[in-house]
Amino acid sequence: MTAERPSARDPFSRYRDQLAAVGFRPSSSRGQNFLLDPTLHRWIAEQAGACREDAVVEIGVGLGFLTRELARSAGKVLAVEIEPRLLDIARQELGASENIEWLLADALSGPGRTLAPRIGELARACGGRFMVVANLPYSVSGPLLAELAQLLRLPDRIIVLVQKELGQRLSAGVGDANYGGLSGLLQSLFAVRALRDVAPTVFRPRPKVWSSIIELELRDARPHVLESASSRTRYARFLRRLFGQRRKALRTTAAAAARDLGLPSPELPPALSAQRAEQLSPDQLVALWQRCEAV
C-alpha cells in the first residue's frame, strides 16, 4: 500500500491559535524559533533529494512544517521533538502520513548525552541512503552534529539550518579564525558546504542573529583509521583536547591528548611538533591521530 502524502499546510495564524490554546510559548533556551517561509521548507527538502528508498531523521520538528515536505519524497521520516505540545500539533496535522514515525524525546537522550538510540537503529536498518535534515535548535546544534559523526552508520547527507556563526565554524578552513575541533572532526568525514544564509525575519519569534543552511556530504574516500564508531569517538575527544589549547605547539598538546586517551605520547618530527592544531588540515589531523594510535 502506498503511504498517504501530506497536503499543503494552512497559514501560520491557525497554528498560532493552536499554540495559544495549549499554553505554549517558545523557549529561547531550547532555541525554539519557527521557520515560517514555506518556500524555504521546500528548498531544504529539495537539497536533501530524498527518495522512496531513503530514511530521513528530522531533529526539532516544531509544528511539522519541514516534516511535511520531507514526507512527500522520503520513504521514512523519523520526526524527533522534545516538546509534547508541539509534537501533538504536528501529529494532528500529519498523522495520516504513514511514512512518518513520531519520537517524543530529547535527541541527546542517550547515555552520556549521546544520540537517542532510535536514531542509530534507523540508520542501521535503512536500506537506502540515511539522511539528517533539520532546522536544528541553536542551543544544541554543535553537540548534535558531533554526535552524528560518531554513529555506527554515518549519515550519507546532512542538511541543517544552524546559527550562522556555527555554520562558519563548520565550513572554515585552515587559517580561518573559525576553524576548530568541530571543523576538523566533521571535515575529516564529510565535504562541508554553506548553501545559503537565512535572515531573522522569516522566523517567529525572530532570533537576534542570521542563520545558515549547511550541507555535509559523506566523503567517498574516508580515512580507514576512522572506520569504526569507537575510533571516531576517540578521535573526537582527541581533537577537543588539541583545540582546547589551540595556541600551544603539538609537542605539548598531542602528548597531553594522547595521555587523556590512555595512549603513549607519539614521536613527532620536529617540523610537526612545532606546529599548532589550528595549522593542520583535516587530513593532517587524521594522520596525527593515526600516529598516536599506532604507538
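^ that was protein a. below is b, sequence first then the C-alpha cells
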Amino acid sequence: MNAGAAYRRVILKLSGEALKGKRKYGIDPQAVQALAAELKAAAGMGVQLGIVVGGGNIFRGIGAEAGSMTRTVADHIGMLATMINSLSLQDALEALDVGTRVMSAIQMNDVAEPYIRRKAMSHLAKGLVVIFACGTGNPYFSTDTAGALRASEVQADVLLKATKVKGIFSEDPQKNPNATFLRRLTYHEFLTRDLRVMDASAIALCRENRLPVVVFDLGGGGNILRAIRGEEIGTLIQGETDGQ
C-alpha cells in the first residue's frame, strides 16, 4: 500500500446513478469513462479495490417501475441490471489497462466468474479490481447490504458509500434545507435515529464486524481518492470507541 492510501483493502459501493451521468436513465459512456479514470487512480495508489454497483439507473426493484410486479421477480430484474452496470464499468477500466474481474452472486459463467470468497480475496491481493455484481443473489436485500456483506467477507478495512449528497444529515436536506450535517455517527446512533441513508441491515452487519463506513458525495471527481486517503470527507460511521 502506498503512503497516500489510508486503507489496505476497500469496498466501494456505487449507486447505479453514478453511471447515468446527466441522463434520466441508462448508462452515459462519458460518465462511466470519468468514473473509470478515478478508479484507475485509486488502484494506482496500491489499495486493493472491490466495487459493488447498484442498478437503479436501469431498474429499481422497489421503485415505481416495478409497479405491481412480484417483489422477488422485481429484485431479480434489479440484480440483472447490476450486471449490465458491472460489465460496462469493467469495459471502461480495461480500456485504461486496469485488470479487473466481475464476480456474480448469480451464475452467468459466459460473462462473469461466480462469486467465491477465497478467489475474490486472491484477485484483490494480486491487485485486480473486483466488481461484485448481482447483489447478494437474494431478493429483499439491497446492494448496500451486498456491499457490507462483501466487505465483511473479504476482510476489507472500510466500506465507502458514494452518494449524491455530502453525507448524512439529521433529515433529508432536499426536504429540509436546515437539516444538520452529521460528521460522525456510531452504528447505534444511525440505527436508533432511523436515518435511512443506508439499509439498517447493512449497518447492523457492519456493526457486528466492526467495519467502518464512510458515506460521501461522489461529486464531480476526486472524492473517491480523498476518501481512500482518509481525508475528512462525508460522514464516518463506526463504533463508540473505534478511532479514539
